[in-house]
Amino acid sequence: MNNWNEYLSSQGAQLATDGSGHVPDFGHALTVAELASGFVAAITDQGLLAVSGDDAATFLHNQLTNDVEHLGLADVRLAGYCTPKGRLQATFLMWRGSESVFLQLARDIAPALQKRLSMFVMRAKAKFSDAGGAMVLLGIGGAGAEAALLPLFGALPATPYSRIDHPLGTLLRVADVFGAPRYQWLATPEAAQAAWPALASALRPAGTDAWRLSEIHAGVPQVTLRTQEQFVPQMVNFELLGGVNFKKGCYPGQEIVARSQYLGKLKRRTALATINAPAQAGDEVFAADDPDQPCGMIVNSAPNGAGGVDVLVEMKLAAIEQGNVHLGSASGVPLRMLPMPYALDALDL
Fold it and tell me: Which of 34, 140, 145, 161 is the most buried (most CB within 10 A)?
């Protein structure tokens, strides 16, 4: 991995100064318009857990918000892991290989989540391991993505949340955005380095911030260290994205999640907004007509290439409707609401 980061640095990547190996960008934050035209991003903020053994799928099925037992080899799904009170401790991108189930999650919570889930394995034949150390992750999206990838793979996953295995690695198609598909490619450092020059000449080279911005505009949230145990899945639109299966069996927090879905009216959702000021996950936002208490919390943020940040922000529905929301206090920098890429449940609004 260090050799991969050194290679990226030689190609113009800006490496984080904290020694983490994080690659935020390639000198400047991309704008939404630049993302839409086509980009290739070195993603360095994700961890990857592999769960192997005869009982791996059954064990995870009993722990996560989505169906794992019927997860096919061509499928990719979102899933969450909740506390007994229904609050998300982690969100995952999940798929199944020939020998393991893979869980991609925020890197800053991966070791603790691996340790916590391992505590509940007991007599089940399931073993957790860190699968991310030997692989690198590239994100490819925008109008030029398909044309850039086809020469490498020959065929691409046909629909969002599907995948293919290839001698070059695993290619996942995730949520589309800007009217174009997006892909994640898990590759060896050698394969990624060999492909980078062609990809970077056809697409705009970028780092993790660009991928995070694309996720935000796709409306796909990710729980990180600063937002653990803050949200019931519906608060971050997780069931709208297929991340919750209400027909599967029990899992930690299932009763709360089901009650939120079927009893009463959902009062909180996650919206897309832009802010002309620095902001990060976990920051609180305030409505002008109720200044004494926060009306919501930023879920994810990323530089937008225009001097500010774009965010996914969880809020009371009344605050989303009114739109007069500010960062940090009722007199703080205002949020400007942007259209979501999917409809929030019409029954809620």
Answer: 140
